[in-house]
Amino acid sequence: LGIASLERQSSSFLPRIFVTMGSAPKSRSRKKAKKGPATTSKAADGVVKKHPQKVMRTIETDIEESPLSHLNLSMRRDLIAELSEAVLEDPHSAFAAPKKDDDMDKSERTITSWFESVSKMRRLLLMADVSKNDNDEFTAKLGIMSLLAIFQDILPTYRIRVPSQAEMNVRVSKDTKKMWDYERDLLTHYRLYLQLLEKTWNNGGGKGESSNGGTTPPTGLAVASILCLSELLKSNYHFNFRSNILTVLVRQSNNKRCTKVSQACCDALKHVFATDAQGDVSLEATKLLAKMIKERPNRIRPDVLRTFLSLPLRVHEDEAQAAKLASVANAKKRKKDAEAAEIEDEMKEGESNVDKIALARAQSDTLHSVTLTYFRVLKSEADAKGGRASINPTTDTAVDLLSPALEGLAKFAHLINIDTVVDLLAVLRTLLKERSDTLPIDAALNCILTAFQTLQGPGREMQIDQKEYVTPLYRQLSRLCTDKNSSHTELALKCLSLAFLKRREYSTVRVAAFFKQICTVSLHAPPHTAAPLLAFSRQLVQRYPSVQQLLENEQDVITTGSYTPDVEDPEHSNPHATSAWELSLSKFRIHESVAKQAIGTAEQKIPQLPRESPDRIRATILRDIKEGHIGYRRSMRKHPLSQGGGRGGRDKRNRNNQIRFIAPRNTSQYHLL
Questions:
Q1: HSE-up of 307 (CA within 13 Å, CB side)?
Q2: Which range, of 270-279, 415-424, 517-526, averages the lowest pLDDT?
Q3: pLDDT exceeds cutoff 80 at 618
Q4: Cis omega before residue 565 (within 30°)?
Q5: Residue 12, SS3?
Q6: Which of 294, 443, 438, 295 is nearest to 373 (CA)?
Q7: Where are the alpha helices (DSSP H) in 174-258?
Q8: Which end of the chain has fewer CB within 10 Å, C or N?
Q9: Which string of DSSP letters, residue by residue, matches 487-505?
Q10: How far apart are CA 57 and CA 269, in angstroms?
């Protein structure tokens, strides 16, 4: 946390933490100087007696090492609860030490009397420090968790500004002086708490885990300290020392030795990205993440890169340029009238309104850092493919980072300018042309999704044939049949919707080839993949009437050649030479939703949107699987041996008179024929 720098910042208002037990008032020191010499003296028994001040320093050292040795575990737990409750009841008096008993001789002061002479917050900090509580990790864990709850409750929602020395010399009211003292003590103890958390993490095996590649997990107390830092960032990211907390959490978000630590840090950063209204904290965290990814491009966890997806970026780069020009004009006005600008800044601190110019500029800088990071990952993966990277191209490190990078580009592609679009499409075209079959299915689908969203966003004015991105999508559909790849069905549905529903496809052969491929994949895929694909095929039939030719009998269609589904280009598969016979088998699937969608596609029924949308059908099936619900179709067919074909009273009379056995006289001689 930069302990030295923090001490320099707050050296003007930090109080003494420990009681100087050797020091005494001047009047008493003069009297004691007359009674005996200041040097050591030898008694009659030969024992050397030390100076009283040295004795007091020894007692102080023992107290610092073990101030709670006289308390057992139950007493420590009860003491933490009592102190925490007392602090929450009156936070202003929690930082002040009780009045000292001047009549007590300093040599008679025990550990108990010294411990009771410090403030309540200081007692909690002592109990949370392992080096001060007889190495009791359980008590230390209770202490840091109690302090977390206290600081989350008493910390203000604004950033405290420490008054300068000139302001301290000005005569102010008693209430103002009291508020300054309270804020100074609050900052002091909050800084001590953050230093304690960092020291606990470093001593618990967390120091240097990112560089040495060790496998020893950190201790439970160290993990608890990181979790406390994460919760502090979530609840008080606008308070002081946020930069120090961000530095620790960004560094530990890439922790490979403890998944709980890395996940907690990533969740805290996501929360900051999603809830930061002004954008300045998100910009600071984004720059720290971008710097870490730049320094270690091949040793980053994919979850670290996915934290950028929580950024609510809405400002286009062209709009950001206008915001920068407006901020420059405001800076010139502020320079002319410095006093008015200072008053305006102080007024803005007390307001809860969002400065739109500052927000636009912060989001512009954030978008620049995020986009640059994504392009750096793509370049690193390309270098790994060409053998110029420092890692083995066969490893999964570069490929694992490619998928979240492409996912982020797909989300923010509509915000980049036209110059970046050209470079981005060139990189995506190269990846899909050379490595579409070797890339993971999520990376390949994200490439296609990014290309479509870029062409429909800032690149809609560019005259580019989208066949280069539709053709790889045809080859990726067959990979959805496995259970492992079926989790990416939602991503495939987004690509299909952008390719055929949100844009017009003029090649009837290409549309028919995709319709036939979807029917084939749905026959072999699990229900949570087959039903959404068949629901999309119903929309495809309504959008492109030429597909209805595949729903006719093959004998009624006159074509030449045969259907070849394994070609790379769907226009060469000759889909009109066959029919969608897979629908006749899919309607007998045991899953009710799959059979219903297959029948709806074959009968060309109009889907009832949004109830029968592919996304909602998939979400419903996944919810049923999670809850253990097994849906099936009820067969309404009558048993061939049941009697009674009519309705009403006759059917009721013959309901229980079913033939259980077939007698020879009823079958006559038919069994001999």
A1: 32
A2: 415-424
A3: yes
A4: no
A5: coil
A6: 294
A7: 174-201, 209-212, 220-235, 242-252
A8: C
A9: GGHHHHHHHHIIIIISS--
A10: 45
Structure tokens at 375: 């392009």
Hunting for tokens 């995020």 — which residue is that? 370
Check whether 279 has a pLDDT greater than 50.
yes
DSSP for 602-644, written as a single string: HTTPPP-TTTT-HHHHHHHHHHHHHHT----PPP-PPPTT---
Rounded distance between C-alpha atoms, residue 480 and residue 492, angstroms: 9
The H or E element containing residue 421 is helix 418-435
The b/e string for 183-207 (b: 16+ C-beta within 10 A; e otherwise) is bbbbbbbbbbbbbbbbbbbebbbbe
Give 614's Cβ-side CA count (13 Å radius).
Answer: 23
Structural contact between residues 514 and 540, judged by C-beta atoms closer than 8 angstroms: yes
pLDDT digit string, tens, across residues 71-100: 788 888 888 899 999 999 988 888 887 765
**Is 227 a residue whose pLDDT tops 80?**
yes
Amino acid at the residue 456: Q
For residue 42, the cross-strand partners are: 48
Cα-based distances in Å from 262 to 194, 224, 257, 265, 416: 19, 13, 9, 5, 30
Contacts of 188 (CB under 8 A, 6+ apart): 10, 13, 14, 15, 95
- pLDDT for position 335: 63
> Does pLDDT of 466 surpass 70?
yes
Q: Supply the pTM of this predicted model.
A: 0.74
State residue 178 phi and psi, 5-degree precision. -65, -40
For residue range 484-519, what is the model confidence (pLDDT) as tens digits?
A: 888 899 999 999 999 999 988 989 999 999 999 999
Please give the single-letter amino acid code of residue 491: L
Task: Please say whether the beta carbons of 488 and 447 come within 8 A.
Answer: no
Report the Cα 244 to chain-centroid distance in Å. 20
CA distance 301 to 257: 12
Question: Strand, helix or coil at 245?
Answer: helix
Q: How confident is the model at residue 460 (pLDDT cuts 50, 70, 90)?
A: confident
In sequence order, which residues have a C-beta less than 8 Å from that of residue 274 and are 6 or more positions away? 310, 312
The pLDDT assigned to 643 comes to 58
Q: How many CB atoms lie within 10 A of CB 589?
A: 20
Count the alpha carbons within 13 Å of 475 in the hemisphere toward its beta carbon. 20
For 128, residues 6+ apart whose C-beta sits below 8 A from its C-beta are: 139, 140, 142, 143, 144, 146, 147, 196
DSSP for 64-105? Answer: HH-TTTT--HHHHHHHHHHHHHHHHH-GGGSSSPPPP-TTS-
pLDDT of residue 2: 43
- Residue 48 sits at φ, ψ, to 5 deg, of -80, 125
